[in-house]
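worker-3 :: picked Probable imidazolonepropionase
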Amino acid sequence: MAGPHRLLLENAQQLVLVCGRGQEYLLRDGCASLAVLRDASLVVGLDGCIKAVGQADAIRNKFSGATFERVIDCSGKCVLPGLVDAHTHPVWAGDRVHEFAMKLAGASFFFFLFFGGGIHFTVEHTRKATEEELFTTFKHRLERMRRAGSTLVECKSGYGLNLETELKMLRVIERAKQSMDIGISSTYCGAHSVPRGKTATEATDDIINNHLPKLKELKLSGEIHVNNIDVFCEKGVFDLVSTRRILQAGKDIGLQINFHGDELHPMKSAELGAELGARAISHLEEVSDEGITAMARAKCAAVLLPTTAYMLRLKQPQARKMLEEGVIVALGSDFNPNAYCFSMPMVMHLACVNMKMSMNEALAAATINAAYALGKSDTHGSIETGKQGDLVIINSSRWEHLIYQFGGHEALIDYVIVKGKVIYQNERCGTISSY
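worker-3 :: tokens ->
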């Protein structure tokens, strides 16, 4: 196929497709044998989409007269889909490093919630920060996520708890969508906590009567495009009735339901999400057996967050039971001031060690299934013709090293590519760049 193209990756030792038949997601049995090609090449077109994937000789012959903006020899290396982080809170001011020692000494989430620390500390600082200050720190965090291989990231608001600051956060996310080479799925999370001075019912009424109508107006005007609606359904925060009201109101204006549930107490969040047609529910440390069954039937993804359970010393989500029951299991970093981790390779490692997932299951959960949780598995999450050319190249002859080398991704990842464009290049590969 003659003509100009953006990128040729050739001679990869392993080219990990993850799936190659247009699957929306992979269940347990589908993860048992991930699609992997050896001595393979791929081509990304000028539109940023994958044009061809196959054996190196076949690709070389098919594109013998073509020109490429960039050619990378992947001999001895592995090519994987760009990683998808299905749950983050990356826009905020006011870190909580000072609380870490208190948590290690046994202080609970509710201690901070009711005594002025925790989320309320971050909310106070986020409200005071300018939009420019928030964008600067957000951009830096996204750059660190990219260097760790993430090419599509779900990004929440939720540290405003009033309309003005929530919109400020969403404008920051929108600005990054337009100006940075990384995929973003934006989430309105104004029901992240109950604001001081309000009851949960009052906060719910404010969100339904004021916040969501404003979001609909801004969407219609093209100023802000929000993808998902989130609520922290938890004892002492938003109960099941308030959660239902907010999620349904968000769904009514076209937002995907993707919310926090069953983290600290069993709330029957999973059952509610399945009933409402939720795309995904996160956390689920305290999910019921009935909730797991309901999620499997509803094809509602479980976004599991092993870093949170690890750092907060919670019991681990029942990943194995979910997989055995037919739930679509995805992974996220839950990056936030309370669980500070940018690295999906580390998340996958923890999922394997602490949640007893296989490496195949963890990779599928951080690619195709995480993309499904965001409603984007038609364009992201696997290496297939027609999908976006988001890729990670690692300096290893086996892809499993991305999970095996705990904390080693900075030395292991050679290139991160978005839409066929190299947006991170390890310094040993030539020019030091993050462009």
